[in-house]
Amino acid sequence: MNNRSVIVTGGSKGLGRGIAQVFAREGAKVLIVARGEDAGNETVQEIRDSGGTASFFRADVANSVEVKGMAQAAIERYGGIDVLCCNAGIFPSAPLEEMSEAEWDLVNSVNLKGAFLCVQACLPEIKKSDQGRVLLMSSITGPITGYTGWSHYGATKAGMLGFMRTAAVELARSNITINAVMPGNVMSEGLDELGEEYLSRMEQAIPLGKLGDPEDVAYAMLFLASHEAKYITGQTLVVDGGQTIPESIDAM
After folding, report:
1. Rounded Cα–Cα distance for residues 178 and 134 (Å)
2. Which residues contact 215 (CB under 8 A, 6 or more apart)?
3. pTM
4. Rounded to an integer, what distance in angstroms lies between the CA atom of residue 16 and that of residue 142?
5. How much of the chain exceeds pLDDT 70, in percent?
6. Which of 21, 135, 181, 199 makes the best surface tag, with the fewest CB within 10 Å?
7. Residue range 42-51, pLDDT digits in tens
8. Active site residue 153
């Protein structure tokens, strides 16, 4: 990853923050894209304090104009784009019977349309790279499992995989790979508020007996972005500690 130009959307916190830190640690020049400036700049400073290269660009991935500005910022600051990590996503909870059309549209706009807009905006520059990579942050929720209140979220994460497979065929003509990582339960800021009892129940559902770490997901992304993964495209990599394997809690 040395001197590779990497964009990480939603890179200011959670999984995105972990991805940005790991890529920077491996020598990449990272553009952290998010809506929250304070958290974004804080992550940039942490990377710089550790000797890495990073900068922040404020953008809403559901806004095509702002996404084009993101791509241009990476070109101006780092000379191009080698890796695009589409990590930005939202997951507000709402039961199906109560979910509004606006809530459905918002989640689809950020999670699924946002990935499409980012890929489209960055593609002309990624084509110039000798190691072009597109990485999508999907989830086990939607493609494999379901969770109450997340029908809109699950639909977007499953939709990403349909998008990826056709994109893989088209991008292969330019020697660009596109793959998706599907995390299970990973410890991040959003889980802190759920309480110890909830976290304990989550751990009991995972064969490895613990929640994942953002770095666990980040290293999967790093592999798919590497030279060693040059012959892998249109594929998914589940990072869940075995969470999707047991038939039931009894199987544990």
Report:
1. 5
2. 18, 21, 22
3. 0.95
4. 20
5. 98
6. 199
7. 999 999 999 9
8. yes
Rounded CA gap, 144 and 141, in Å? Answer: 6
List b or e across 98-123, with b for residues whose CB sees 16 or more CB atoms inside 10 angstroms: ebeeeebeebbbbbbbbbbbbbebbb
- Which candidate, 66, 182, 173, places its Cα nearest to that of 117? 66
Residue type at 101 in one-letter notation: E
Among the listed residues 153, 198, 219, 231, the single catalytic one is: 153
Half-sphere exposure of 23 (CA within 13 A, CB side): 36
N-term to C-term CA, the chain: 39
Are 47 and 20 a contacting pair, CB within 8 Å?
Answer: yes
Closest alpha carbon to 62 in 116, 24, 5? 116
Task: Check residue 196 and give its pLDDT.
Answer: 81
The structural domain count of the chain equals 1
Token match 């702002």: residue? 66
Range of the domain at 93: 5-251
Place of tokens 């330019």: 174
Tokens of 252: 């544990």
55 phi and psi angles, rounded to 5 deg = -150, 165
Domain with residue 57: its CATH number is 3.40.50.720
* 3-state secondary structure (DSSP) of residue 141: strand
